[in-house]
Amino acid sequence: MSAPADKVQSAIDDFNAAYGLCLDDDRLEQWPDLFVDDCLYQVIARENVDNGLPAAVMYCDSKGMLVDRVVALRKANVFPEHFNRHLIGRAVITGVEGDEVSAEASYVVFQTRNDGETRIYNAGKYVDRFDLGGGHVRLKSRTCIYDTLRIATLLATPI
Predict the structure, then answer these.
(1) Is the pTM of this model over 0.85?
(2) What CA–CA distance (Å, rounded) separates 81 from 113?
(3) CA spacing 20 to 30 A to 11: which of 4, 20, 132, 148?
């Protein structure tokens, strides 16, 4: 990769900020565009990762599955009205190979329901592989490893 390390860091952090706002602003139809076509997105418990268990609570292995997820959220799934707010820490770059960058970042998702109370909904870390080719940052994979021992309600919207 020819980009200096500070530009890569800035690009990844800017991407993560835009990712969080996309979800928080309920622009779910734009969410799949943050990924390459042949991608992986999963939300998995830390306990499962630590024990080598592959079962994820949300698993999509293509951009088409991400689109289907959004369609289901808009048309089929029933879940309590809520508003999420993502806080995403500065990414730690863990590897660079050509246009592919590996990184990890801590996250917390706060959720406010119609009772007006805000709670920590989910906390953990993103383990990512980014494609920085073509002048755009896109996710090749995002694994959301959550520390939260239980998810209080249906995991409807992406983390």
Answers:
(1) yes
(2) 6
(3) 148
